[in-house]
Design a protein that fits this description.
Strands 1, 2, 3, 4, 5, 6, 7, 8 and 9 form a nine-stranded antiparallel β-sheet that branches. About 10% of the residues lie in helices and about 35% in strands. It starts with a helix and ends with a strand. The protein has about 180 residues and is mainly beta. The longest helix has 20 residues. It is built from one helix and nine strands, in the order αβββββββββ. The chain has a single domain, classed as SH3 type barrels (Roll), CATH 2.30.30.
């Protein structure tokens, strides 16, 4: 009877550990240039778009365009084929912040857009400004105070893609810049 009890506990512990290591809805993140720690990154969208976002008037890659991603924000992203699901005119930022959950500081996180930031002033944030992040791309990001590293007006894209590393397809990945996309 003791052996059965021990086997039952071991099996339950194994299932718990395995369940905690997998998340089929979120592709595995990858550490890469830019962010110091991409652990837990989830740029997929549940459909909730930032308020005030304006569709791009004349994007290089219109919605429905087939593209190749030339960025490594996440594992299996660089070289992945995808489809543009959104193109928006906005100000695009890279930011540095300390996560609200006690995680390690993140440097030069790419990308957050104007509609995902709350500025300390009435003006559009610029490099060096302090802002509050309203996006939840990574654990501890939402509500974190950040410093703007770069700011550039342009078109930001949302894409669906299938990772090159065999990971689960990603829907509505937020965000990719025009320079991170190509047609071949």
């Amino acid at each position: 009877m003791k052996k059965r009890w021990i086997y039952a506990i071991a099996a339950a512990a194994g299932i718990t550990l395995l369940g905690g290591c997998s998340d089929s809805a979120t592709p595995a993140p990858a550490a890469q240039s830019g962010d110091t720690d991409m652990h837990g990154m989830d740029h997929g969208s549940s459909g909730a778009m930032p308020e005030g976002l304006k569709e791009a008037a004349d994007p290089v890659y219109p919605v429905g365009s087939k593209v190749v991603i030339r960025s490594d924000h996440m594992a299996g992203m660089d070289g992945a084929e995808g489809t543009v699901t959104g193109a928006y005119d906005t100000t695009i930022y890279s930011v540095s912040y300390t996560p609200t959950d006690g995680g390690e500081p993140v440097s030069d996180h790419e990308w957050v857009i104007e509609e995902e930031l709350r500025s300390q002033t009435e003006s559009v944030p610029d490099a060096g400004d302090t802002v509050t992040i309203e996006a939840g791309h990574m654990p501890g990001m939402k509500g974190a105070e950040a410093t703007v590293d770069t700011a550039e007006k342009g078109v930001i894209y949302m894409v669906d893609y299938t990772p090159t590393d065999g990971g689960q397809p990603v829907t509505n990945h937020m965000w990719v810049t025009e320079s991170e996309l190509s047609t071949e």
